[in-house]
């Protein structure tokens, strides 16, 4: 009989991660920042990017793969742009700083773009794209994935990654529209989450090197992710992955293509992960209230539009994450048994309290 998932509160999960990060050597404020963002990932249902990454982060820190006390600094700057050197710090710290810089610049320039170099895995893209929302700004986020699992269209060499893109657009009475997607059919974090839960993948996520469907997530290393569009129109996702990689990686002097380090199998190399975030100040283009009202009207038109037979509801991007966030805030965040065992090993090694 399989063991049930346990449920933990957001506050407990955040405190648990923060304690582990502090013990691993991060200053307390940085540990709390990383822990908050990781727990927020789990809260919104991005299960492949939250506490499930703690064992991997711990291995990298112990192996010297992360700098726990980075000097995160701007190395190039103009009025509406900046290039941020993350000094190989945790990506959560680097991208929070990048978002703050973009927001501050967009207040006066209208639009701001910040690239990062020498960053690391930062969790779900939507966390950072959503940061400008509170300032009545639109957020855009791009990243080079932390391992190449995508070949060129029609090829076999792993030269591209999931290279995610996210956009967050504020609304008025409605919830913000938040899109967060990989340029592959499924993000690799979802593959890892399936493996932890002992589940199979749907056909169409991955194929083996002969082009046959691969549904066992524990055999993921034997295959490759399919780009958006799948077997029929994957050239579209492939092209998008290239463009996002050039914007998030090459433009900022970060790794792209063959230079990308597979941080799933390499714990000590500097990954030089590249990310980019843009903030667009709505007030630079018109009245904020009018804009938000127009977004509300569009959302309601879409939601109330005629549905195909068998369709109960038409949703807009971000609704499912919002619903998950509300449900997990009320009921707790589920942690699968396999992950609990991995977390227990981390805490036992560190001498900190287990997650209860």
Characterize this entry briefly.
This protein has 356 residues and is α+β, with helices and mostly antiparallel strands. Helices cover 38% and strands 17% of the residues. It has ten helices and twelve strands.
User: What proportion of the residues is helical, as a percent range?
Assistant: 25-40%
Structural class by sheet pairing and helices? alpha+beta
Shape: globular
Distance between the termini: 21 Å
Q: Which regions have little confidence, pLDDT < 50, spanning 5+ residues? A: none
Number of helices: 10
Tell me about the largest β-sheet.
7 strands, mixed
N-to-C order of helices and strands: EHHHEEHEHEEEHEEEHEHHEH
Trace the largest sheet across and list its strands.
Answer: 2-3-4-11-5-6-7
Strand content: 15-25%
What's the pLDDT, averaged over the residues? 96
Q: What is the number of beta strands?
A: 12
Radius of gyration: 20 Å
């Amino acid at each position: 009989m399989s063991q049930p998932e346990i449920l933990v509160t957001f506050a407990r999960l955040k405190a648990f991660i923060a304690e582990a990060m502090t013990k691993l050597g991060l200053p307390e404020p940085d540990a709390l920042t990383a822990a908050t963002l990781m727990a927020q990932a789990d809260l919104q249902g991005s299960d492949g990017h939250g506490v499930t990454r703690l064992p991997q982060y711990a291995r990298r820190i112990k192996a010297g793969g992360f700098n726990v006390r980075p000097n995160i600094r701007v190395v190039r700057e103009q009025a509406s742009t900046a290039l941020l050197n993350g000094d190989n710090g945790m990506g959560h710290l680097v991208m929070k700083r990048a978002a703050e810089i973009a927001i501050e610049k967009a207040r006066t320039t209208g639009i701001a773009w910040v690239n990062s170099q020498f960053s690391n895995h930062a969790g779900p893209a939507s966390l950072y794209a959503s940061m400008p929302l509170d300032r009545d700004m639109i957020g855009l986020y791009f990243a080079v994935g932390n391992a190449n699992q995508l070949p060129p269209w029609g090829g076999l060499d792993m030269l591209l990654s999931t290279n995610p893109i996210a956009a967050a657009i504020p609304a008025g009475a409605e919830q913000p529209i938040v899109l967060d997607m990989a340029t592959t059919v499924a993000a690799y974090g979802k593959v890892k989450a399936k493996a932890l839960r002992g589940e199979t993948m749907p056909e169409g996520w991955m194929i083996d090197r002969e082009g046959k469907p691969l549904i066992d997530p524990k055999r993921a290393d034997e295959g490759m992710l399919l780009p958006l569009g799948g077997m029929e129109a994957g050239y579209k996702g492939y092209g998008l992955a290239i463009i996002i990689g050039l914007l998030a990686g090459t433009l900022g002097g970060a790794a792209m293509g063959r230079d990308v380090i597979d941080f799933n199998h390499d714990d000590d190399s500097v990954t030089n992960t590249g990310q980019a975030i843009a903030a667009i100040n709505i007030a630079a283009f018109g009245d904020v209230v009018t804009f938000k009202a127009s977004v509300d009207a569009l959302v309601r038109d879409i939601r109330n539009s005629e549905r195909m037979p068998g369709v109960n509801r038409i949703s807009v991007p971000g609704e499912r994450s919002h619903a998950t966030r509300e449900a997990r805030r009320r009921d707790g965040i589920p942690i699968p048994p396999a992950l609990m065992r991995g977390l227990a090993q981390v805490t036992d090694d560190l001498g900190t309290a287990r997650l209860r």
